[in-house]
Amino acid sequence: MSTRLGAGFGRLWTSAIASNLADGIGRTAVPLIGTTLTHDPALIAGLTAVTFLPWLLFGIPAGMLLDRVDRRIAMAVANSVRFAVAALLALLIAGDALTIWWLYACVLLFGLGETVFDNATTTVVPSLVTRDQLDRANGRMQSAEIVIQNFVATPVAGFLFAASLLLPVWLTGAGFLIAGLLALTIPAAAARAHAFGGEHAGEARPGMGAVVRFLAGHRFLRPMIILTSITASALAFAQGSVVLLLLNTYGLPAALVGVVTALIGVGALAGALLSSRFVARFGRGRVMFVSILVSGLGIGCVGLTGNVVLGILAYAIGAFGVAVWNVPWGALRQAIVPNAMLGRAMGIVRSIGWGLTPIATILGGFVARIDLKLPFLIGGVVVVVLTLIATRLLLSADSYGPSAASGSGTEAPTDTIPEGTVK
């Protein structure tokens, strides 16, 4: 019998909804604004690359920060900075002073705030729900993200852009500001890195070296981090120039880009809503294996067709697979990693995974100069091949899930992890 996730989680969820609204509008508007400055696929893909670059540069420092400070304050400050950047971008547009390089700079600053806010959101969840609720909580967070970004923010952003370049920018800034203020309502105890109970109560905060040793020595997390990093890069390689694919190959007007993105989001929403049920019925390992395989097949099929209906359908199937994957993978990391080091661990994981994304995205942009569909085909094939290679690893995920983990969320120390060290 499922129990309520609680008022504290509801407050975090509300803050995340406001931030997702801002992200959804911004991520649709920025590439569209970019197309008014250049039609070079490599430069447009570069905008997406710069979005992820902060995870390479600031992901680990952000995690270190979040393991030391009140995470509510960090979320509020991060989104206040993003509000200020949105205001600067609006002023540049209003003054007809915006260039592609100014746009790059603003996107980079948006990303710096994201490393703090999004990392904090992930690290607070395990303090607000019980271990057996992690799949449901992550599914709820991802469902909200998909609904807000794909069905509300993205379509609205397309129409706002068609009316005025300034409207989506100001709404993006307002969403960030509201999300930051809402973050301050999260229970204080859950937002402090040292506030974790059970057998970890009273333990000293483990050092950065202990976090690195645990990640490097964990028999499941180490290969999973490598696998997810490469697959994420392959998907980024595929999608860096998607706005040009929609505009040029599929011939969509700019105002409908958000509508099409919403249609693709139907697949992602279905995946997020069904993922925890799939895990309960079929097991975590099988679900993770099938979902990532489906994501690769869907994305790859986008590269095989120039038909807008088939392309959108394939894209939606790929999005379904990614959304199903994200829920159990997120719950696994939260179950395995103790709260006191979760910020730094997530910073390392995302720095490795998303740090490769800018390079992959730019490479995909150059390949898109040949054919806008080709990056999708290549990226999909890479994901499928990697999934088949990692079949045994993925199927072993049942041994490490929230229901299988010990109270600490860690496995027994190995010869590469000093006894008593936690991840």
TrEMBL record:
It is a multi-pass membrane protein. Its main location: membrane. Pfam families: MFS_3. Residues 1-398 form the Major facilitator superfamily (MFS) profile domain. Residues 400-423 are annotated as: Disordered. Coiled coil: none annotated. PROSITE patterns: MFS. Keywords: Cell membrane, Membrane, Transmembrane, Transmembrane helix, Transport. The keyword Transmembrane helix applies. It comes from the Bacteria. The chain crosses the membrane at residues 42-66, 73-95, 224-247, 253-275, 287-306, 312-332, 352-370, 376-395. One of its GO terms (cellular component) is plasma membrane. CDD domains: MFS_MefA_like (cd06173). It is found in: Cell membrane. It comes from Leifsonia sp. NPDC080035. This is MFS transporter. One of its GO terms (molecular function) is transmembrane transporter activity.
